[in-house]
Design goal:
PRC_barrel-like_sf, PRC-brl_dom, 157 residues, elongated, 4% helix, 1 helix, eight-stranded mixed beta sheet, SH3 type barrels, 2 domains
């Protein structure tokens, strides 16, 4: 299990040709912790973001991501349900609050199992200095509700 921040920026290769398609820019997942796919920033003069479903990803390694076929890339508009960290429907930086009314901090990253295709937990920050003194918090995967101004989790810490 690793955080998405270790995956962000890795090159994406087409398996059959070895051609670089672009680089990873975001992760897409549901509120129950199922990874749906990745957002890839295509290279070139007119770079654009494309969505690749998890089913089209052959392997996620330390130095790159391999996809089965370039034609599996879809417009980001095809990603309509669920959430991402940074791009459309991005939730990074939103306050995370329990149903008991306790503010845990701001959502910063996600831990995920690439082989299982699930989110294992969420990394929460209280800010730079608090993270230095106390460390970042981790909330295990629980269903969450995304509101306009906060993420509500049904857990206690």
């Amino acid at each position: 299990m690793r955080t998405f921040s270790h995956l962000k920026g890795l090159p994406v290769y087409e398996q059959h040709t070895g051609k670089t398609i672009g680089k990873v820019s975001d992760i897409c997942f549901t509120n129950t912790g199922k990874v749906q796919g990745l957002i890839i920033e295509s290279k070139g003069w007119f770079s654009r973001h494309r969505y690749i479903p998890l089913s089209a990803i052959q392997a996620i390694g330390v130095d790159g991501v391999f996809i089965t076929d370039f034609h599996a890339l879809q417009p980001t508009a095809s990603f309509q349900t669920g959430y991402s960290l940074y791009s459309q429907r991005g939730i990074a930086g939103k306050p995370v609050i329990t149903t008991n009314g306790k503010k845990l901090g701001l959502l910063e990253d996600v831990y995920f199992h690439e082989q299982l295709g699930i989110i294992g937990g969420y990394e929460i920050t209280d800010g730079f200095f608090a993270d230095l003194m106390e460390g970042k918090k981790r909330v295990n995967t629980v269903p969450f509700t995304v509101g306009e101004e906060a993420i509500i989790v049904n857990t206690t810490m």
